[in-house]
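User: I've been going back and forth on whether these two constructs are worth ordering. Before I decide, could you fold them both?

Assistant: Sure. I'll take them in the order you sent them. The first construct and its structure tokens:
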Amino acid sequence: MQGIITNFLTAVAVSDLAPRASLAGLVYLAMGTAMVTLGAVLFKKRWSRRDSGSSGFVLLALFGLLIASPQPTHAQANGETAVLPHLEQFLDKTITTQLADLGIPGAAVTIVAGGETILTKGYGLADQAQNRLMDGERTLLRTGSVGKLITWTAVMQLAEQGRLDLHADVNDYLDFTIPATFPEPITLAYLMTHTAGFADQGEALFVLSAEKMMPLRQYLVELQPARVFPPGQTQAYSNYGTALAGYIVERVSGEPFADYVETHIFAPLEMRHSTLRQPVPPELRSDLAIGYGAGELSTLPGGFLFSPPYPAGAMSASAADMSRFMIAHLQNGRYADATILQPETVYLMHRRHYTPDPRLDGMGYGFMMQRSNGHDVLFHRGSAFQFNAGLYLLPTENVGLYVAYNGAGGVDAPQQLWERFMDQYYPAPVLPVPTPAPDAASRLADYTGEYHLARADFSGPATVFRLLEAAQVSATRDGYLQVMVEGRPERYVEVEPGLFRHEWGQGDLAFHTDTEGRQWLSLDGRPAFLNFTATSAFKAPWYATLSISALLIGLTLLLFILSGFGWLVGWLRHPGVKQPALSRAKGLLSLRLSRWTAVAFSLSFLLFLLSFASLVGDVDPAFGVPRLFFGEASGVELVLLLPWLAAATAAGLLGSVILVWRETAVALWPKLHLTLLSVLALALVWWLSYWNLLGL
């Protein structure tokens, strides 16, 4: 129950350019001043957003900016003008607008191109209380699941050394056992494509204090999720699977995973402002950004979150360090004089190894894939509540972008920035807007329905949240297929059987049927469908849909409440009526017993719903998720007893109704009425059992 909400979790500046206190800074200032003077003429004085129309003001503004603000790692004119012209101006406008519109305190971004970092910069504040500026060189932000790419890089290092076989049973490397639920074993290749088939595991993914941390092995053993899909068949994003891979690296290398990463990845890439350690080491602590809430809580800071499965997303890193990591992957494993991977290994990581449909983007080894404006992109996003990050590689152009934000309102911000970056520098060709064929509407009924995410709990109480995360697929009268997730609708046009394209031409979705006859929906990444990243969704049976569940619960409670109210009114109107013959009979006792057990059932079920809603609604204001997620909620055990009480009273109601039917003194209508109530009560007990609310 601790994991009732799952989640949704996640390099080149060697010199520290400090123009205020170093010779390099003075040289940089002089060069920058000359460039601005020239730029004022060439670009009609539009070099800076602070341009007021006079070159003297421009120079003063630049001087103030250099003194007070974090600076780009490399201010190379060739990089900015030849490869990505006006890059800094574009980022200044785009990111500052994002911060203002989304209520985010700060961000750090880095851009690499041609094997070099061409811009690293911070925006806004890393710490609002201390008024500490975001510094792209030094400020550490939590990377969330972007840090998984470090884990997969470590796996591939050992694989190219012959110390790991990507297609061997992971049990060969473990000191505990993953059960053989299916004939085919889980392999590292399956872990890297998120097709191992694990159910989602939310419990202890994050905790609020170091005292509640558990060792990695203990987490993996005690909180092992069920295997619910055969390996290699279904994509279901798994933090547990990534943590398992990190532990395998630890076992095979003989080094704690954090030590291994520091020695074999961070050190050769000179990533001096990156760490997997929790808390952050003392020498880096003063550079750690503070995370903040969303909306009205954008000034509310959160504490440092600890993650027991830390290979899955506990990394803290500066933007500059991430630029080095991107360069290494874009340069066939090399950064400067260091080599972290061989070219063949990089190619193996970057090529597609899984896709739910060959017409869709898929997964490399750890890297997700998407088509962006006609270009193949390798990417990974990450979210750690108050921190949101995204890493994007454009291999054909040798370009990479990494950005991180320290506000909970920035969930979509990395993808938004990437799309605007692509529109600015690699715009899509103008294509005709797809429209439905005249007979499209007649074929859409086969695809409509409710689809549940494969990334979900299938054995615990959090299973019920599949209902709230479902995709509702419907057909419009004009032939569009509409997909709605969390209240956000998107429309698609059929382009070939089973394949649909977004009405704006960005992103496809496809349907397929598995060997058991179950229909699946898979789609390319889009901002409105972030929960579908590295996952698919299956069509739910009619009895397991949100609408049927709501109808069953609502109708049953309404009938029970109206019945109880009617019984109460009848008793109040005729409290002293005597029925000498019937009062001595068992019939009246059976009738009263049935009514009391019906009232007890309705009260216990209603109390469970209210208590359950209270647990979920007890949200930590700083992190925006229920305290239950962190194991901080109280009264959980008591709430979990209520479904059992409801089941017991439903059984009692059924027994008392059987007795009522045996009594000839009771009229037919009360018998039919109580029978209906008992059937509905049993239906709700089945509902509790189906969603694993009776599973503890």
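The second construct, handled the same way:
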Amino acid sequence: MPRRSLVAVLAALVVTVSGCTVPSFAPDGSGEATPAPQGTSSASAAPNASGADWQPCPEIPDQLVGRGAAGMTYDCAKVSVPRDWSDPGNGDTYAIAMIRIRSATQQGRVGSLLINPGGPGGSGIDTAVYLSFGQQFGGLPTEITNKFDIIGFDPRGVGRSDPVKCISAQDQDASFAAVPDPVSQADFTSVVALNEKIANGCAQKYSPAQLATFSTVQAAKDMDAIRTAVGDDKLTYLGYSYGTLLGATYAQLFPAKIRALVLDGAVDPKQSFIEGSESQAKGFERAFTNFTNWCKANTADCPIAPDARKAVTDALKAADTKPVKGADGRNATSGWIFVAVVSSLYTETGWTALAKAIADLKAGDAEGVFELADQYAERKPDGTYSNLFDANLAVNCSDTKDAPTVEEVRRLQGEWRKKYPLFGGSLAVGMLPCAVWKGDRDPYPAGAAAGAPPIVVVGTTGDPATPYENTADLASMLGTGHVLTWEGEGHTAYPSTQCIVQAVDGYLIDLKVPREGLRCPAK
């Protein structure tokens, strides 16, 4: 089976306050893993009471990667939550889908480890399945799966949990294909019109009031219902990217209900919407520069060396006048190329794929560009999409109380283009969806988690989507945060190296907080 990256599956809109991926890989079939027993359940072995009605669901890993991980059982359940936690008695509910993964070698069980991959819009169920295949495939270490039930959940509006779906495939294609940094007023106006069309369609389908129920605050309250349903007195949680914002919100709402929180790839809740977007522009520009420096130093592996920046910039310019046509008839516009670039920067392993894709494009072959872009967009071969970007839009815009006006976006576009040549203008334009959003707003809090135990906040120095500077800011805001640094490339850190693994595992299992100031090397 093909090797599939969670970057490909779970990457979120870069135009929002956070990116969303876990730098892990599903098995490619070349390892020694063997299929897990199918149709079995570990529910009867649960050592504590649980309010969830767990049922075997081996079909989930079968659908995702062709089999279950050796020695793992997969059980699924749903928990019903109020649609609006501020009015829980009105009878409207959402069903939150969960998966529980348990190892046959589990001993000395600590409890459940709840996982969120970020986004917003990423499926925690899919992520938990991928992570269940073990550290040799970029998944969770055996030390963790031997001590915890792994609980993945799709947040409200995502995947299997009453998914929000209000953007047509045609509009998604048009959005990704559009000029990412439109200079002419006509091109800019066209992008505004497309975003207004999408916003109007979502408001007509769900109503402004219901759109606000997909907010982070509502999802954080769902997490406490999940904690109760799995039978844990206190929450142990691993959140990536946007999942750090979700975890931080939970910490502020339920500080006494926390056992341990690992927040990897920090979002800074104190940043305004504009500040967060500019922070991402800076992060992606820095990551792209790191890619170009790698090309200069590794010419044998980079067919667009020595000047990779010029090669990418030239490809974007050429696509505006003479785009290469893909095998499915799509034109590889500057928009699709830009999405491919963004997709490749989430992990250092994506750099080789980007270099080859740009080189192939110059030779008239657009398939590498479309492969990277479609992985990021969750676009299927038949032209349909998952609901990743529908949910991403609904959550981010519901969370945002300070979106800029269209006129402000246009002004910032020019200013940021000068500061961040490849990403500045595009990230400014990326604020348009929330600028024209028609839904009600429900912003998340940005304060201390008074009474919470120590919380570990992990940062990667080369992270494009959640820049490293956010790490200390989030830890400081929470008041009980402790920074752990990975001096690596790509988005998020755990479980990239043994240093990171030892530090995080020691905290999750034994509540041993990593040494203050600990910096783990890239390799």
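Notes on the second construct follow. The first strand starts at residue 55 and ends at 56. The radius of gyration is 22 Å.
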